[in-house]
Amino acid sequence: MPRRAPTRRAAGASQQVGARLKHKRREAGLKLAEVSERTTISISTLSRLEHGIYQLSVPQLVALATALRCTIMDLLAERTEGGGSSGTP
Fold it and tell me: Between these two residues, 13 and 72, which has the higher pLDDT value?
């Protein structure tokens, strides 16, 4: 079954999650290759996830949170100025 193009809202959410993923990876001082080794997600897929081209699957999300030593919510939820989660990805 061919993949459908994401809606604008889904594409925007994917880009936001991708940006947080990239931030967390850099914060951890890891290269794409190192995250790839820890998660078995290919480097090209990781790059596409970080650029918001692909949407994360639940297994990928769990693997990435584990590899980056953060919570799933750290990758999904926007942070407010007070440091709390806004509750919307």
Answer: 72
The CA distance from 52 to 31, in Å, is 18
Q: Would you say 50 and 18 are in contact if contact means Cβ atoms under 8 Å apart?
A: yes
- This prediction has a pTM of 0.75
Q: What value, to the nearest 5°, has the Cα angle with vertex 56 and ends 50 and 59?
A: 125
Question: Which residues 6+ apart lie within 8 Å of 42 measured at CB?
Answer: 36
Domain ranges of the chain: 8-76
Q: What is the CATH topology of the domain spanning 8-76? A: 434 Repressor (Amino-terminal Domain) (1.10.260)
For 58-85, b/e burial (b = at least 16 CB within 10 A) is eebbebbbebbebeeebbbbeeeeeeee
